[in-house]
Amino acid sequence: VAEVWWMGGALKVPGNVIQEGHDGTAEWNAYWDPPAAGEVWNSSVPLVMVPLDATNSVPVTTALVYSFGPQSQYTFSALAGSMWAQVVTWQLDNKNAGFEYFAWDALTAACSLKPDL
């Protein structure tokens, strides 16, 4: 393994853990499995971190999902549109939870393929 790209952490922005009794500073991936996060950070493999500071710039909005519609004749657009539609539906159903969805892993994967993004 040449390097690990990790979507995780938050440097200068609030975390994304919404749990009763939590102070809002933790990022979900580190919060959910601290021992695994520790293994990643303590590994000798070079680590590239894509924190919430970066992923907060790519919200999954209704407008984004609707933008796939005009291109639905393309397999990828149809697939992406239907997948993201589920997210937006979930987000609308949980509107009062105060949770927003972002393209966390999609941005990390894109950056791993094109680091100059």
Give the helix level as a range of percent: 40-55%
Low-confidence parts, pLDDT < 50 over ≥5 residues?
none
How many angstroms separate the termini?
A: 22 Å
Would you tell me the overall average pLDDT? 87
The sequence of SSEs as H and E is EHHEHHHH
Shape: globular
* Rg over C-alpha atoms, rounded to the nearest angstrom: 16 Å
Main sheet record: 2 strands, parallel
Individual helix count: 6
Topology, number of strands:
2
Instruction: Please give the order of strands in the largest beta sheet.
Output: 1-2
Q: How would you describe this structure to a colleague?
A:
The protein has 117 residues and is mainly alpha-helical. The protein is built from six helices and two strands. It has a domain at 1-53. The protein has helices at residues 28-32, 34-42, 52-55, 62-67, 75-93, 104-113; strands at residues 4-7, 47-50. Strands 1-2 form a two-stranded parallel sheet. The chain starts with a strand and ends with a helix. The model has no long low-confidence stretch (mean pLDDT 87).
